[in-house]
Amino acid sequence: MSDHSTGHDQLMNAVYRNQRFIYDFTRKYYLLGRDRLIEGLDVPPGGTVLEVACGTGRNLIKVGQRYPNAQLFGFDISTEMLTTARSNLKRAGLSDRTTLVQADATDFTAQGLFGLPNFDRVFISYSLSMIPDWQTALARSLGQTAPGGQLALVDFSQQKQLPRWFSKGLLAWLALFHVAPRAELTAQIQTLAAKNRGTADVDHLYRDYAVLGRIRPPLPNAGQTAP
């Protein structure tokens, strides 16, 4: 497991030390597609759900309310964000079925963090665009998703169908927060699904403002016929 010695944890703490207090209020206007991601998780009764880079806990609260029997897990590299997440989840009455820890999205296992073999559902919301080695984080997250489960993600797309002035302004503003939309995200989702013999669905939302992807690992022996 990572000891967070790369300095990314320190950077994220610096970015969110004060931002965390207004994060949810401000981000609701431009982190689009998060609730659509949650609606499509289709968590089984009593299922386990992990949010990678859980931030303030906003999404975990939504998951807990939408799926009242789900067991919730989350981690973030920022201790500042985790402080806010714990407070928010307690206020929402979800502390008793939520476990939060500090961890690095590029170097974690379900067993090492939570003593579980994997999770029924794993999701990543607007975080890959902030993780330098986002390809490793995505592959690692899929590796902790149960066979027959679902890895879901939503993040900024390339705004190809939006006015150039809008896209240019958005990218410049996001860069102030160390956010860089990943041009290769759609291709990476499809490649990773194929490599692991799973299926992938990708939607480009709001005129390519955001990309919503889902990867479903196959069940054991899926596609094999009985002798």
Automatic annotation (TrEMBL):
Single GO molecular-function term? methyltransferase activity
Write out the entry's keywords from A to Z: Methyltransferase, Transferase
Question: According to the UniProt entry, where is the signal peptide?
Answer: none
An annotated GO BP:
methylation
| Stated name of the protein | Methyltransferase domain-containing protein
Residue ranges of every copy of the Methyltransferase domain listed in the record? 49-149
Its lineage opens with:
Bacteria, Pseudomonadati, Pseudomonadota, Alphaproteobacteria, Rhodobacterales
